[in-house]
UniProtKB/TrEMBL annotation:
It comes from the Bacteria. Coiled coil: none annotated. This is DNA-binding transcriptional LysR family regulator. Pfam families: HTH_1 (PF00126), LysR_substrate (PF03466). Gene3D superfamilies: 3.40.190.290, Winged helix-like DNA-binding domain superfamily/Winged helix DNA-binding domain. The keyword Transcription applies. The keyword Transferase does not apply. GO terms for cellular component: protein-DNA complex. Residues 1-58 form the HTH lysR-type domain. Keywords: DNA-binding, Transcription, Transcription regulation. GO terms for molecular function: DNA binding; DNA-binding transcription factor activity. Belongs to the LysR transcriptional regulatory family. InterPro entries: LysR_HTH_N (IPR000847), LysR_subst-bd (IPR005119), WH-like_DNA-bd_sf (IPR036388), WH_DNA-bd_sf (IPR036390).
Length: 288
């Protein structure tokens, strides 16, 4: 059995026909059919059921496809690992980041990382958490910087730091309060919520026995902060997301251990994580 036969077999399984697989592999149909026949002869069982139009995996073919995919992935990971060894501190690092980190912690992390690893090129993608996790799963980015909670199925989660949720708004909403405040102080204030944090906040408020006055919900964390800056209401957001606020806007951490944000780096489980990604994750963890 040869590695190229696994490549041919998976291409046929994905394409559904010999003709389509041959086009994908940039080869003619007869040699591809011959290699498939040799593979089935060697294994002693058919891998496909044939009808007039398509090929369908047999039970043996489904098992073989799963194993072949794993072997090919290991080969691809091995090539990346060898390239990493040759490149040392060089290469391309593809990072996905949520908006609440892109203008706060990320610039500092990237600048200091670049000081230590100047030969690493960076490609940054800003999306919401759920889209970033899909990009990790499809291997279109090397790692994502996101906030919990999220479904971690099939992912490696690397905790970086935790920070409190804060109330953010113009000074007249807080009656001269200084430092951290009780969430109960928000009971009669117009709240501006980022949709990502709405379930956690509403659950906490319900358990605390009051119904908040939600004036606005937004899909963008920057939007709720801009509205708070304009005096429309009080935004609830993680501490690091408040870095761009202007004078006259106050920030008060909320006194509740349940109201916090955990920042994590996420990589794909079961796949090789390159040296640049590993170094970046370690660097961010050591920065805290």
């Amino acid at each position: 059995m040869e590695l190229r036969q696994l490549i041919y077999f998976t291409a046929i399984a994905q394409a559904g026909t010999i003709t389509a697989a041959a086009q994908k592999l940039h080869m003619s149909q007869p040699p591809l059919s011959l290699q498939l026949q040799k593979l089935e002869d060697e294994l002693g069982c058919p891998l496909f059921e044939r009808d007039t139009r398509h090929l369908h995996l047999t039970p043996a073919g489904e098992l073989f496809y799963e194993r072949a995919q794993a072997i090919l992935q290991q080969c691809a990971d091995l090539k990346r690992e060898m390239a990493d060894l040759q490149a040392g501190g060089r290469g391309l690092l593809r990072i996905g980041v949520v908006s609440s980190l892109s203008t706060s912690l990320l610039p500092r992390w990237v600048a200091r990382f670049h000081e230590q690893y100047p030969q690493v090129r960076l490609e940054l993608t800003e999306r919401d958490s759920f889209r970033l996790l899909e990009l990790v799963r499809s291997q279109r980015i090397d790692l994502a910087l996101v906030r919990r909670p999220f479904s971690g199925q099939g992912l490696n989660i690397h905790p970086i730091c935790s920070e409190p949720m804060c109330a953010v708004g113009r000074h007249h909403f807080f009656d001269g309060a200084e430092g951290s405040i009780s969430p109960m102080a928000l009971a009669n204030l117009p709240l501006l919520l980022y949709r990502r944090w709405e379930p956690m906040l509403m659950r906490f408020f319900a358990e605390s026995g009051f119904e908040p006055q939600v004036l606005c919900c937004s899909e963008d964390s920057h939007t709720v902060l801009r509205l708070a800056r304009e005096g429309l209401g009080v935004a609830c957001t993680p501490l690091s997301a408040t870095c761009e606020l202007q004078p006259g806007t106050e920030i008060h951490p909320l006194q509740a251990k349940e109201l916090y944000s955990e920042i994590c780096a996420v990589t794909l489980q079961g796949h090789y994580t390159g040296a640049a990604a590993r170094n970046f994750i370690r660097f961010t963890q050591e920065e805290q």
